[in-house]
Amino acid sequence: MKRRFRGPLGPFIKRHLKLRQSLGLALTNDKYVLDDFDRYVAAHFPGAQTVTRAMVAGYLETTRHLHSTSRITRLSNLRQFCRFLFQLHPDTYIPEKHLIPPGQVKVQPHIYTEREVRNLIEAAAALPPPGSLRPHTYATVMGLLWVSGLRIGEVVRLNIEDVDRVEGVLHVQRTKFHKSRLVPLSGSATAALLRYRQQRSAYGHDENPTAPFFVNERARRCTTDTLDDTFRALTTKLGMKTRQGRPPRLHDFRHALAPGVL
Fold first, then answer.
1. If you compute the radius of gyration of the chain from its CA atoms, what whole number of angstroms results?
2. Which residue(s) pair with 169 in the sheet?
3. Measuring CA to CA, which residue among 212, 229, 152, 171 is closest to residue 1?
4. CA 67, CA 246: separation in Å to the nearest integer?
5. What pTM value is reported for the model?
6. By C-alpha distance, which of 177, 147, 139, 144 is closest to 158?
7. Rounded CA gap, 84 and 94, in Å?
8. 199: how many CB neighbours lie within 10 A of its CB?
9. Rounded to whole angstroms, how far apart are CA atoms 210 and 212?
10. Residue 186 has pLDDT above 60, yes or no
11. Quick check: 220 and 212 in contact, CB under 8 A?
């Protein structure tokens, strides 16, 4: 897994999360949002010791591609952290509740055409470095999202033991609502995962049942933020836009399910 909270606010974020965890709270979203904010601060305010309005406003600008509900949730995560930091640094800026206006036009899901998806898969298959597993990983992930209806978080959490290549079934663990389920695959989708497993093995990656199925160049589990960043780069290169003129989202694959094609 990638190391989180390496920016200037990282130590304070860790203390904040540790306190909240001690109260029995599930913090998956908080960790992702605060790590994203910490990386933004590290890039634009490397000497920061507290949070300013400019930091929050600048960070929220980078989230304009998200639905307003998601942006409001991120703002809430930041407010909680800033209230904690205020106890240590009274000059900390605590964001106002209404920095993200409610009632914005809902982002409509982009329904991918078959040609768009095939272009994405082809672009992913051409990713550098040449001769590496990376292009195979991204092309297979894109295809699996298209045919399975899985969330990206569910895909990256797949382990070797979760992919039943004999029965053509995925064992999806720890879903959004903390349940598990079985997802049947078509013969072509199963064959595509078998090819990836063989490619993965050829590069000498861990074959233990609990090892991550999709791995990055450091032989570690792929992460949702890295996949999302690469996806955005590919859609930008291909000039893809939604009807609203926005960049399409990885999550939109859930609305373009195409069983049996991979």
1. 20
2. 164, 184
3. 212
4. 11
5. 0.63
6. 144
7. 10
8. 15
9. 6
10. yes
11. yes
* Residues 6+ positions from 178 with CB-CB distance below 8 Å: none
Beta strands 181-184 and 169-172: pairing type?
A: antiparallel
Q: Residue 144, CB half-sphere, CA atoms under 13 Å: how many?
A: 29
Integer Cα distance of 19 and 80 in angstroms: 12
Tell whether omega for the bond before 129 is within 30 degrees of 0, i.e. cis: yes
Q: Tens digits of per-residue pLDDT, 37-72?
A: 999 999 999 999 899 999 999 999 999 888 788 899
Say if CB 120 and CB 235 are below 8 A apart: yes
215 by DSSP, 3-state: which?
strand
How far is the C-alpha of 81 from the C-alpha of 63, rounded, in Å?
A: 18
Query: What is the distance between the alpha carbons of residues 149 and 135, in angstroms, rounded to a whole number?
Result: 21
Q: For residue 26, what are its two tokens?
A: 């599930």
Helices (H), 95-186: 114-125, 134-148, 152-156
What pLDDT score does 23 carry?
79
CA angle 185, 186, 188 (to 5 degrees): 120
| CB distance 249 to 236 below 8 Å | no
Integer Cα distance of 227 and 13 in angstroms: 24
The dihedrals phi and psi of 139, each to the nearest 5 degrees, come to -65, -40
